[in-house]
Design the sequence.
């Protein structure tokens, strides 16, 4: 019988150092939240939605908070390093676990890269030869030169070293940096309120000069969701907390609430401080902000335009923060990327050396080295902050759809596990969190989903190569051949599809890509041992969810069509109904996996409410 060895499932977790306090976890989340996003998103979002973008920050924050609430209960019950990529495996087995873990890895591993790019982009104002202006999809963006990429590589190595010398050192450094990162934005919106002009919210086309739909479009595409996503740091470092069951849920929820307040105040202050005479271009041209003189340094430009000596002097600190904030976030996410790889290795999707924890430093050293390699690779084909933001945001939130699903499945399959934080109203909040994730992905638009869906499907080849032969009972030669065929088929299709030559019409590309995913799934089901086939069927809902959102986005107002088939408003209703159907399908697909059964047994035998690797155990 080819199954995962449950006893080994968490053996390496015992070697993780349990050193992080509540403050460390909270500052890890805030350190992940306050990065390059706050420096650039306020102007970029204003260019999409005008003054109404204030609502975008609130709506985006509420949606992310719903998702965070669902993870808070599970994180307190099952604190794990690499948590988000490990929970799906505990509730749905390997197929859904791989889909969600692979999607999350694509997003997490690129964040340190994007933060390094942000630092080098700002440095290019003072150091020549690091970056140049380019036009991509009709928009002006800054792209790193070869020398700029080299600088970025050096910075990612620094991120690696800070994590290499131990989580305690990294956590302490991050606490100091995060205090700085919190104080500077607070002072920024206080100073900007002295330059506040209420007319910016009512003149120049009113509060919604660009319409209602852009309020939602700005959430995934302008860096708003990207700016909130750091809340997951407390979850991903949960296995290294001193009192994870108490501190992880608190740190997760409080960090999101603090971020919503901070970012909303910053956006209101920035909008009110816009000086149209200083910004250049046509007065009241909100869409033109993206190409204005303020685009590279929005807050510093706004304060400098005020002409007040104190504010002008303060801009020097803002320019310094342009290096400190992204660097701090990059350092945190380098650790997160390592723990994501570690989590995937613990689920046996990746080789055993990647789940090894150093006895000397207490960190997953193999995974950290692999994370460094990925960071360096992503610098080469994607050397621009602006090209990555929407992609990272939507790919990450796609994996967050599992929060509410996993919570309800664990309520059913593991009711006896101790829950220090028990979410009230879960039957309402869990499906709302799933719909929230679906909306954010849907609003990102067809152009972004072209990349995400293709990348997710390409990852199936890895499942065939590494996991199916070892753990599903599949024939090794057949699995390797199937993975190669799948990879080649998707790459060839991609060449003719919308990401490259665009020879194939979208609908033809969509149908063929869906057919490839379905045929591969059928092959995996037949190739797996009978006792393991439930793991395949338990993950089919994710394929339906992914491709369902993809086609809905194409026919809706966030598509590339000149005349969308769905009108704004009706499309949200259809997406909500579709998401609810998928949600209850996903919940019904969950089952009591061997891994969760082993955790329940071990806890019952030990008489402890704390699971393996969670720090100081508390009595049940």
Sequence:
């Amino acid at each position: 019988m080819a199954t995962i060895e449950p006893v080994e499932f968490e053996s390496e977790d015992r070697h993780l150092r349990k050193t992080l306090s509540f403050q460390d976890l909270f500052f890890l989340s805030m350190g992940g939240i306050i990065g390059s996003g706050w420096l650039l998103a306020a102007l970029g979002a204003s260019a999409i939605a005008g003054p109404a973008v204030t609502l975008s920050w609130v709506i985006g924050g509420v949606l992310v908070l719903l998702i965070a609430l669902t993870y808070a209960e599970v994180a307190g019950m099952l604190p794990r390093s690499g948590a988000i990529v490990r929970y799906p495996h505990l509730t749905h087995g390997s197929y859904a676990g791989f889909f969600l873990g692979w999607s999350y890895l694509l997003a997490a591993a690129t964040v340190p890269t994007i933060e390094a790019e942000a630092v080098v982009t700002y440095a290019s104002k003072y150091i020549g030869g690091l970056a140049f202006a380019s036009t991509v999809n009709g928009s002006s963006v800054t792209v790193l030169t070869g020398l700029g990429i080299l600088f970025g590589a050096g910075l990612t190595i620094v991120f690696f070293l800070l994590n290499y010398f131990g989580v305690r050192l990294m956590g302490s450094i991050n606490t100091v940096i995060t205090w700085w990162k919190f104080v500077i934005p607070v002072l920024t919106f206080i100073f900007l309120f002295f330059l506040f002009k209420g007319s910016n919210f009512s003149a120049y086309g009113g509060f919604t000069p660009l319409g209602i739909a852009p309020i939602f479009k700005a959430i995934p595409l302008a860096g708003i969701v990207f700016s909130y996503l750091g809340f997951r740091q407390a979850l991903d470092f949960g296995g290294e907390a001193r009192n994870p069951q108490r501190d992880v849920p608190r740190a997760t929820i409080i960090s999101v609430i603090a971020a919503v307040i901070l970012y909303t105040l910053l956006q209101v202050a920035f909008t009110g401080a816009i000086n149209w005479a200083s910004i250049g271009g046509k007065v009241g041209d909100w869409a033109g902000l993206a190409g204005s003189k303020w685009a590279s340094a929005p807050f510093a430009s706004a304060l400098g335009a005020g002409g007040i000596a104190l504010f002008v002097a303060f801009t020097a600190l803002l320019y310094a923060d342009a290096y400190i904030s992204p660097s701090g976030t990059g350092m945190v996410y380098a650790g997160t990327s390592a723990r994501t790889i570690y989590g995937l290795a613990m689920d046996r999707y990746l080789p055993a050396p990647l789940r090894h924890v150093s006895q000397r430093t207490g960190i997953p050293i193999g995974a950290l080295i692999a994370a460094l390699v990925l960071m360096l690779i992503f610098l080469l084909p994607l050397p621009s902050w602006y090209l990555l933001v929407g992609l990272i945001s939507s790919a990450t939130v796609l994996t967050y759809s599992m929060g509410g699903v996993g919570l309800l499945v664990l309520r059913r399959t593991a009711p006896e596990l101790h829950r220090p934080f028990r979410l009230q109203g879960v039957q309402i909040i869990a499906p709302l969190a799933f719909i929230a994730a679906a909306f954010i992905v849907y609003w990102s638009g067809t152009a972004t989903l072209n990349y995400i869906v293709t990348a997710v499907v390409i990852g199936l080849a890895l499942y065939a190569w590494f996991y199916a032969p070892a753990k599903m009972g599949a024939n090794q030669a057949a699995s390797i051949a199937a993975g190669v065929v799948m990879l080649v088929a998707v790459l060839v299709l991609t060449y003719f599809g919308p990401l490259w030559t665009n020879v194939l019409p979208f609908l033809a590309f969509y149908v063929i890509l869906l057919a490839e995913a379905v045929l591969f799934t059928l092959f995996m089901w037949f190739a797996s041992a009978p006792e393991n086939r439930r793991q395949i069927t338990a993950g089919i809902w994710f394929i339906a969810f992914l491709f369902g959102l993809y086609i809905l986005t194409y026919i809706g107002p966030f598509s590339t069509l000149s005349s969308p088939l769905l009108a704004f408003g009706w499309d949200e209703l259809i997406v909500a109904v579709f998401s609810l159907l998928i949600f209850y399908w996903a919940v019904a697909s969950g089952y009591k996996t061997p891994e969760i059964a082993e955790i329940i047994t071990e806890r019952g035998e030990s008489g402890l409410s704390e699971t393996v690797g969670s720090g100081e155990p508390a009595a049940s």
